[in-house]
Amino acid sequence: MPDKFPESSEFHTLRIIPPAGLHYSTDLLRKMCDIWEKHGSGLIALHGQSGDIMLQGCSSENVQKAFDELNEIGFDLGGAGPALRTSMNCVGHARCEQSCYDEVRTHRTVINGFLDEMHRPALPYKFKFKFSGCPNDCVNAIHRADFAVIGTWRDDIQVDQQEVQNYVAKVGRKYMIDVVITHCPTRALSLNDDDTLEIDNKSCVRCMHCINVMTKALSPGKDRGAMVLIGGKRSLKVGDFLGSVIVPFMKLETDEDFEKLKDFCETVIDFFAENALEHERIGETIDRIGLANFLEGIGVEVDPNMVNHPRTSSYARMDDWDQEVEKWRARKAEAASASEAAE
Ligand code: SF4
Ligand code: SF4
């Protein structure tokens, strides 16, 4: 209704990439607001689901002017449409004691390596990266990101037994058993008679519950890194998906580690670009072609850690896996040719 509300006749949104970790200086925020008041409506949404700074309400004529000035103070354009989207990481390494890798560096390394994919939409559909420093997953990577990098550790949980005893003395054994011990999803915890804690680390699934409750006594192990989960998304054609574990553990410390991650991201994006149908998220592609085919396509070996609930599934066996995949493929091919013949 431009006759009634003239400003609404052109009301474009500019998506701008926020700083990794979403930290700003007040000086930078003031400059951003001044630019937006000069060229746009002054309305800002911090932050969209993918982390974007969304500057809402701009005329066609002012879009380029606003972007040029924002670019001068260090901002770049975010993603929209069938493209790599703006990414997000938790505050992690900067302030959080649970962080298992440098999320900010990882985020910047990955996104700076794929800016072309963000600025020139050429993918079948949107593709999102998200980076969480530990399995608490404060940026909702597992169910929001096509490619989630989530911190984890592969040695034992660090325990300060004196702090465990202090905690039990404060809250009592009943509370400790009711709220910590019995809430461990894999029954990996037990409380000794002297109020120290026993952890069966091989059974721990890194859910973070005990560490979150007893922050003084417990912390993630020392051999820290990250896992990669692919295929998470909110509802679209096939409903909501959580990401599947594709790389159970990788170190992210040296330049070489970061190069390896970038190469892997490139492989996955290339596979997505070549094999996904239009308007299909990668989780739906995996659902359509099968996880075994996806793993083969991106050159990743099958690993027992990829099984959703290995402890509760009596069917999770790795022997004869290759032959089973061949049999499954043969059955699929047979079914496909039968349906072709019927048509
Ligand atoms: S995801 Fe983990 S490391 Fe990141 S802010 Fe949350 S608790 Fe901290
Ligand atoms: S992190 Fe979770 S699974 Fe591991 S010991 Fe603690 S409560 Fe159990």
Topology:
Elements: E1 12-16, H1 26-39, E2 40-46, E3 53-58, H2 60-72, E4 88-89, H3 92-95, H4 103-113, H5 115-119, E5 129-132, H6 141-144, E6 147-153, E7 158-159, H7 161-171, H8 173-180, E8 189-191, E9 197-199, H9 209-213, E10 218-219, E11 224-230, E12 244-250, H10 255-275, H11 282-289, H12 291-298, H13 321-342
Parallel strand pairs: 4-5, 5-6
Antiparallel strand pairs: 1-3, 2-3, 6-11, 7-10, 8-9, 11-12
Helix pairs in contact: 1-2, 4-10, 7-8, 11-12
The protein binds iron/sulfur cluster (2 copies).
Any idea what the CATH architecture of the largest domain is?
Answer: 2-Layer Sandwich
The low-pLDDT segments are none
Which structural category fits the helices and strands? alpha+beta
Residue share in helix: 25-40%
For the record, what is the CATH homologous superfamily label of the largest domain?
A: Sulfite Reductase Hemoprotein, domain 1
Mean pLDDT: 91
Q: What CATH first level of the largest domain would be assigned? A: Alpha Beta
Order the strands across the largest sheet as they lie in space.
4-5-6-11-12
Distance between the termini: 52 Å
The biggest sheet amounts to: 5 strands, mixed
Which compounds are bound in this model? iron/sulfur cluster
- Encode the helix/strand succession as letters: EHEEHEHHHEHEEHHEEHEEEHHHH
What are the salient characteristics of this protein?
single chain; 343 residues; alpha+beta; Alpha-Beta Plaits; Sulfite Reductase Hemoprotein, domain 1; 3 domains; binds iron/sulfur cluster
Written description of the protein model:
The structure is a single chain. This protein is an alpha+beta fold and 343 residues long. The protein folds into three domains: 6-72, Alpha-Beta Plaits, CATH 3.30.70.2500; 88-153 and 225-301, Sulfite Reductase Hemoprotein, domain 1; 158-219, Alpha-Beta Plaits (2-Layer Sandwich), CATH 3.30.70.20. The protein contains 13 helices and twelve strands. It has helices at 26-39, 60-72, 92-95, 103-113, 115-119, 141-144, 161-171, 173-180, 209-213, 255-275, 282-289, 291-298, 321-342, and strands spanning 12-16, 40-46, 53-58, 88-89, 129-132, 147-153, 158-159, 189-191, 197-199, 218-219, 224-230, 244-250. The strands form four sheets. Strands 4-5-6-11-12 form a five-stranded mixed beta sheet. A three-stranded antiparallel beta sheet has the order 1-3-2. It is globular and about 75 Å long. The N and C termini lie far apart (52 Å). The model has no long low-confidence stretch (mean pLDDT 91). The chain binds iron/sulfur cluster (2 copies). The site of one iron/sulfur cluster has 14 residues, from helix 9.
